[in-house]
Amino acid sequence: MTKLEGTQKLMRIFIGENDKYEGRPLYKSLVELCREKGIAGATVIRGIYGYGASSVIHSSRTLALSNDLPLIVEVVDSEEKINYILPEIDKMIGHGLITLEVAHVIKYE
Predict the structure, then answer these.
(1) Alpha helices per DSSP H over 14-78
(2) Are 27 and 96 in contact (CB under 8 A)?
């Protein structure tokens, strides 16, 4: 098992719930890619309200519940590993936003 502490990278991938990659939900494909490549961790977070480049509001509180809520896939690992998978992730995402941040990992075993 990998021990990850200290200064690492946090990658956030902002996509929509309806986004697909090769006919499958994009968020599942992203998490599975991270797992296959030995990335320390990935989590999908579902947003309840937001908008992106189109400026269309996506909300879980509309009369007809939105089936395209915003999702954030958070990925944490070393800068080297994040940089290694970033080109593959870039090919998978049709539209979305990726941010990279410094994260201080206290403990991961």
Answers:
(1) 26-36
(2) no
Q: Taking phi first (over 0 means left), then psi (-120 to 50 degrees means alpha), and beta for anything else, what does residue 2 get?
A: beta
For tokens 């590993």, what's the residue? 81
Instruction: Give CA 48 to chain center in angstroms.
Output: 16
The pairs formed by 46-54 with CB atoms below 8 angstroms and a separation of 24 or more are: 46/17, 46/70, 46/71, 47/71, 47/72, 52/14, 52/16, 52/95, 52/96, 52/97, 53/95, 53/97
pTM: 0.86
pLDDT tens per residue across span 14-50: 999 999 999 999 999 999 999 999 999 999 999 887 7
Residue with tokens 């070393």: 78
Q: What is d(CA 21, CA 13) in angstroms, rounded to the nearest whole number?
A: 14
